[in-house]
Request: fold
Amino acid sequence: MVYDESWYSGRSVLITGGLGFIGSSLAIRMVALGAKVTLLDAMLKECGGNWKNIEPIREQVRIFQDDMRNFQALSLVVKEQDAIFHLAGQVSHGNSMREPLTDLGLNCVSTMNLVEACRIHNPKARIVFTSTRQVYGVPQKLPVKENHPVLPIDVNGINKLAAEYYHLLYHRTYNLKSTVLRLTNTYGPRLQIQNDRQGFIGVFLKQCLSGREIDIFGDGMQVRDFNYVDDVVQALVLSLLHDQCFGHIFNLGSRDRYTLLHFAQTLATLTDVTYKLIPFPVDKKLIDIGNYYGDYSAFSDITGWQPQMDLHEGLAKTLAYFQAHRINYLTA
Amino acid sequence: MVYDESWYSGRSVLITGGLGFIGSSLAIRMVALGAKVTLLDAMLKECGGNWKNIEPIREQVRIFQDDMRNFQALSLVVKEQDAIFHLAGQVSHGNSMREPLTDLGLNCVSTMNLVEACRIHNPKARIVFTSTRQVYGVPQKLPVKENHPVLPIDVNGINKLAAEYYHLLYHRTYNLKSTVLRLTNTYGPRLQIQNDRQGFIGVFLKQCLSGREIDIFGDGMQVRDFNYVDDVVQALVLSLLHDQCFGHIFNLGSRDRYTLLHFAQTLATLTDVTYKLIPFPVDKKLIDIGNYYGDYSAFSDITGWQPQMDLHEGLAKTLAYFQAHRINYLTA
Reply:
């Protein structure tokens, strides 16, 4: 079956990690689509949740501040949801290496709890899980397709991969309607930029917004694909409307790819800051994957999804948002 | 570097799951090689630990009854060990589906704790982890090589796979001397046969020893490779003597492969019991992988390992052991 976006109107929708960057952006979209929206977020330190993210819809959503590692609490929340967007988790590669057991809890235990809770209490819910391109490790061939071998090079990649497998297994074994999207570098309004634990985009933005130089590790020639958050939200919206997606893994990605240097130069142009190349820190080099861009044609073929936003315009919008809401994202 | 077996003489050796089937068999061998042996076992219900397994060496080993999910306890035990055989874990496919979170704790958390404890307290230890052919899921091509795609079809396979990745990651990132062996069907003296949760071999043996008919699910035409426990012990011994193994995954396997029907017929012949075919239970069919046998040439090429035991002789030895020690393995 294929549905259109009106399917969401009047439906009960749960977003885990709903106060985070992508979760809150999705929540705003879901409210616009007429869904009855519940947000679940543990608001853990450094995981990206921010009450300011949902200011525009604060009165139109129900919020549970609960930790998904608590099975009982989660069981209550998943009941009677028509759609579940599972975005909660630890996403910092560095933190996953510093605190691997915490990462294991936030990614593996939380996800196992979710699929178990759905199996027991809500087996008909439509579920999508946001995984990461990090599961591939160092690409052997570009663009990376979904059947590329997986060899994660950090704890986060391993735990996200296990979480993917739980979703696929519960689809295969118990018919859960579960889909996995592997996200690449996502940017846009509401990105967590306060701490530097969630990737270079947040770090670059913070440096720009603070009027400092942008620090690029190495020569900045690593190629990446970048998705503006609205394009990722659209992918999430579409993923649950196509029954063909269930039980499968799909890459997101972008038509144009850029070097980190180009990305930094675009930011610099938009903000009048400068940038400089600095040596790659050893701990970061160990978990760097070199060039990456993904092939998203499998997902496009089923859902028609095409990323729309041009990098220059997307970064301009992002900067405009943060300049207008600086106080909510950059505290002293 | 390559060492010979005399390397173990006088060395401190830790065996996790040391009171289990393979762990205790390895412990007996290690004592014979002159190692200073420490066994760690939580003695959890249905995980295979049995005090009777180590009767021949009870006074020659040090034993800690601790749970590897407890990081502090584990940290104390790993210190100053030269070699660590990580065999502890949940191995029942069925139990992993019934209690997925327990499986996650016993396989993922325990293993994460081990590599973390080694990184912090004993980064020079030689480590081997016993994984399972179950990580491959349903074979696409036989014999299965180590680069066969992995798609576990039960929770146990997923968690063992994550545990493998932790070992490889800690090798890559922190130079831990870690090797992964993917075991196939192992049989022999000390196999857990009291409950029917650890595979068909234990079930068949229990049926034989109780003088009951052997029940074969389906037509019994699934092909498997079988390793006698002494051959697996020898593989473990060799794995730590070859530096080339560290950071890699290796299959075990056998030269000859047999159907489950042949396996049951051999047992029946040796014990004068009969067998019958019965329909495949639905829950077991869902996690059945069809035919499987592995290519173990990569491990042989490095270590010279060759499984020695013929199935008929191996089963005869196994039955003789259980007939002599029935009271320790089959309680009412």
Remarks:
- Chain A has twelve helices and twelve strands.
- Chain A touches chain B through 30 residues (CB under 8 Å).
- Residues 5-191+226-255+292-310 of chain A form a domain with the Rossmann fold fold (CATH 3.40.50.720).
